[in-house]
Amino acid sequence: MDPHGQAISPTLAFLHHIYEPLVRYNKELEIEPALSTGWEVVEPDLWRFTLREGVTFHDGSAFTAEDVVASLQRATHPDSPIRGNLPAVAKVEKVDEYTVDIHLNGNYPLLLNDLTNVYVLDKTWMDEHGALNPVDPSKGEQSYATTHTNGTGPFVLDIRRPDAETVLTVNEQWWDEAQHNLTRIEFTPIASDATRVSALLSGQIDMMLSVPLQDISRLENAPGFNILETPGLRTIMLALNQSPETLGDSGDNPLRDLGVRKALYQAINMELIRDKLMRGKSRNAALPVAPAVPGYDASLDERFPYDPEAARQLLAEAGYPDGFSIGLDCPNDRYVRDEEICQAIAAMWARVGVETRVNARNASNHWQTALNGGSDVWMFGWATLPMLDSFSILSQVLTSPHDKYGAWNPGGYENAEVDTLVEKISVAQDEQERLSMIAEAFAITKAEVPLIPLHQQPLIWATNDNIQLPQTPDNKVRLWYATVE
């Protein structure tokens, strides 16, 4: 329940019903005021925000500038798991009760994009419960804010039973004019695809996310249901751990060799995965961003060809003619066909001599292992949220860990030229120059293969046909726009 505890999109999307940011995306993915009513760029490195008056937290306390200052300080704390969501923020200051200054490390054009996913908590509430500093759930840490909430959003936490149900009720004191007609939200995690579909068909639930590909036609043919489908922004990838000197019992780390990394890439038959596992609904990718994301360059979006023979040759040239063994860590409840994709890739790697152990876990355990450097190769997805810009993955995944960069780079990839480009991109004012530098950084990282892009997965939801709900490419459910007839 801690909005500063994980930079995981589904978690933050759900918590947006309870907590709110200074600015938010609307149903057209346009930035609009939320807890702030306006802003101005006083200096290139100083933004001033005017806060919304008359807002109260769920416990009735008033929302003021002190809450914003404390929340942004907490989010950017060196121990914060989401510090990478505000990479340019240097300092936050209260001007008066309803005015806040945000000082940046330099000129930075994407501050509003970043702020959409950083939520505001009540300073007094945090102080009273010892939660002013962040904790990291991936390290097993908890605080009062992990299990309790006090936001300003359209819904209030009523019941919380982890892994069983989370129930929200409507906030009758919400400052905004409600566009929904809901009174209660019951969120039930159902890991099994078959059970989830059965729950929808039987009326146990009213909507579901991530409709299994094999069940789309079944739901389309069943009366009383709607299928919502749109191209997704999320690119599914494999990250390769180059950090340790050794992996497993091999005596060295084969992934530190470029030839090995490229061999693993070329041993994956993405056409087969698309056609068989994804039912033709995914889009194979060579870049870590989707075409709709600013910074995407079509000239770079061509995969290294699937070529098992070339992969074997690369392994032999790298000193592994007989292959080696490796672990492949995957979630089994996070992405479309995630575990099945990993099993297919393991079989493909086995054909070129790489013995692969697939470790499939629930998402929370998967992130805890991967983000602490415990995986050899690990699956992850990136939709460039909340930034909706290529700078997101460049700064958090493909930059060496330092300051507020590289929070999602436990694999130890480092390239000084990329780091320098990222610093320049962060302050570039000329849009064409900025896009050119992004393309240059992507060209470098594509050639060095620190990760293997796989595909963009489709977004497929299903609802009862009496529910009206906008679907956006960021795959975030915004139930404050939902109506039930």
Q: In angstroms, what is the radius of gyration?
A: 23 Å
How many helices in DSSP terms? 15
* Helix and strand composition category: alpha+beta
β-strand amount? 15-25%
The residue ranges in which pLDDT falls below 50 over 5 or more consecutive positions are none
Overall pLDDT metric? 93
Number of strands: 18
- Could you say which overall geometry the principal axes of the C-alpha atoms support? globular
**Helix fraction by DSSP (H/I, runs of at least 4):** 25-40%
Report the sheet with the most strands, covering strand number, pairing sense and barrel closure: 7 strands, mixed
State the separation between the terminal residues, measured CA to CA. Answer: 30 Å
Could you walk me through the main structural features you see in this protein, from its secondary elements to its overall organization?
With 485 residues, the chain is an alpha+beta fold. 27% of the residues lie in helices and 23% in strands. It contains 15 helices and 18 strands. It has helices spanning 9-15, 65-75, 111-115, 123-128, 144-147, 193-201, 216-221, 258-266, 270-277, 308-317, 338-350, 363-371, 391-396, 416-427, 431-448; strands at 23-25, 31-33, 36-43, 46-51, 89-96, 99-104, 155-161, 165-170, 184-187, 207-208, 225-240, 283-284, 324-331, 354-361, 377-382, 451-464, 467-468, 483-484. Strands 10, 11, 12, 13, 14, 15 and 16 form a seven-stranded mixed sheet that branches. A four-stranded antiparallel sheet has the order 3-4-6-5, with helices on one face. Strand 3 and strand 4 form a beta hairpin. The longest helix is centred in the C-terminal third of the chain and has 18 residues, at 431-448. It is globular. The relative contact order is 0.15.
